[in-house]
Amino acid sequence: MTKVNDEYDSQASxxxxxxRKLVPGYDFFISVTPLLMNNPTSVLDLGCGTGNSSAGIKxxxxxxxxxxxxxxxxxxxxxxxxxxxxxxxxxxxxFQPKQxxxxxxxxxxxxxxxxxxKRQSVYKMIxxxxxxxxxxxxxxxxxxxxxITYSLYIKMWRNFMLNNLTEEExxxxxxxxxxxxxxPLTLSKQIEMISRAGFKSIEIINxxxxxxxxxxxx
Length: 218
Ligand SMILES: C[S@@+](CC[C@H](N)C(=O)[O-])C[C@H]1O[C@@H](n2cnc3c(N)ncnc32)[C@H](O)[C@@H]1O
Fold this sequence. Notes:
Elements (H helix, E strand, L loop, with lengths): L2 H9 L3 H8 L3 H10 L6 E5 L5 H9 L4 E6 L2 H10 L3 E4 L11 E7 L8 H14 E14 L3 H16 L4 H15 L3 E2 H10 L4 E8 L2 E7 L1
Parallel strand pairs: 1-2, 1-4, 2-3, 4-5, 5-6
Antiparallel strand pairs: 5-8, 7-8
Helix pairs in contact: 3-4
S-adenosylmethionine binds next to helix 1, helix 4 and strand 2.
């Protein structure tokens, strides 16, 4: 088990209580993702966590077959107790799907992939696993394109978190954890890498401070 994995295992039971306090627009990402799909028969949820995105998809498309992948056994247990699907404990960096999907999603996950070349190969795996006309939705944290926007985003994100959490929690826990563990990319780098993985068209669906939702079409 990796350190990232240990972190998520220990956070699993409280995850749904804190994620909205940390991620501006989290509920937008969750609620809009199914609306943008076109009655998918099969969906792959990479880093499914407690299953919030998958639950939204299943609510709208009861017949959709979900495949949910996560490294954290504790996260998977919660997701499995909420929704019907195929649950696989795997690192997305090693995951090789055995079927094709109409849609793939990764919500707040890709910043956990530490090496840039691994991230590129995960985008390629996603692109290869989609049926023709398939779509990939990714929501994630980004860093600014330069020092000015980098500082601005951290300042604005800190203010957002301070609306929901104490200074001790934000400055003593969440911001240091982010700086130590997360590997976010700039928006332009993400788009370049997704494009290189073989997607025809890429569109930004939403941007809220340093969090973006991107749709990529095969
Ligand atoms: C911030 S949570 C997001 C969970 C869910 N997608 C959501 O939107 O609420 C990140 C999830 O990704 C999982 N994760 C992190 N790195 C991973 C990796 N390399 N492979 C598979 N899962 C990973 C974590 O265990 C955790 O459940």
